């Protein structure tokens, strides 16, 4: 794969496994409170937004010279990680 094809989400998931917001936010729902949890669905939506943002930024974009990146309004990739 080329750096332009590898997203930050790909790297994180390859190293850490599935991205989760909480220990119970996996698809298998192994928490004993899963069926009656009030925050499960909102946390799932937060997780999806995080994955979406991480999936929009490629390794090539992170490695690119910041002076040659697209104008701020059109930039897809976050510029600071921390």
Name its key features:
3 helices; mainly alpha; single chain; 82 residues
Estimate the helix proportion, in percent.
Answer: 25-40%
The proportion of strand residues reads: under 5%
Mean pLDDT: 79
Specify the overall morphology: elongated
Q: What's the number of extended β-strand segments?
A: 0
Extract low-pLDDT stretches.
none
Main sheet specs:
none
Structural class, please?
A: mainly alpha
Rg over CA atoms, rounded to whole Å, is 16 Å
Spell out the helices and strands N to C. Answer: HHH
Q: What count of structural domains?
A: 1
Q: How does this model look, in words?
A:
The chain has 82 residues and is an all-alpha fold. Helix content is 37%, strand content 0%. The protein has helices at 8-16, 40-55, 59-63.
In short:
By secondary structure, the protein is mainly alpha-helical. It is built from 3 helices and no strands.
